[in-house]
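Reading a protein record of the kind used here takes only a little practice. The record below shows the convention in full.

——
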Amino acid sequence: MAIFIDSDTKVLVQGITGRDGSFHTREMMSYGTRVVAGVTPGKGSQTFEGPNGSNVPIFNGMDEAVHETGANTSVIYVPPRFAAGAILEAAEAGVELIVAITEGVPVLDMARAHAFARDRGVRVLGPNCPGLISPGKSKVGILPGQIVAEGPIGVVSRSGTLTYEAIFQLTTAGLGQTTCVGIGGDPLIGTNFIDCLKEFEA
């Protein structure tokens, strides 16, 4: 069974207009992920041009974006000094899952952000993680969609490149996956191996 994300997941991209954010947003949309909004302060009322002429509205802040689109998941592509603030804003706006791709977020900032999100019942994946993918349903983050296949195996890894290699070897052997999760390599992460295993076993 897929965990955390599925075909009904509505994704909001924080930092959608940046280089990494824009590239990976298009990759997610090409995979079939339902990207419903982007947030970049100062660029509200603009639109992000996705693949095949699809457009995504951009908002100045998370509250408005979540209210207008019903987004339940946020993925963060912002510089390290802004990442913890982005997590706080996403948690306060009421999303259920926050995927923090950013590497090098100050540890003290993350301690505060994790505590804030935990108190509100919001799951944080990362930071410094490749995200996650439920093959054939949705991908959130930077995991390459071309190496996965649908099947019964759940994958959880701390290392991004080892995640890719494990998935590739499984797919090559004809063993598909339910959800593949990269939990992140920073000292403080929001979701660990045990958390993921409990979800797979539920």
Observations:
- The helical segments are 19-31, 62-69, 80-93, 107-119, 160-172, 193-201.
- Residues 19 and 42 are 17 Å apart (CA to CA).
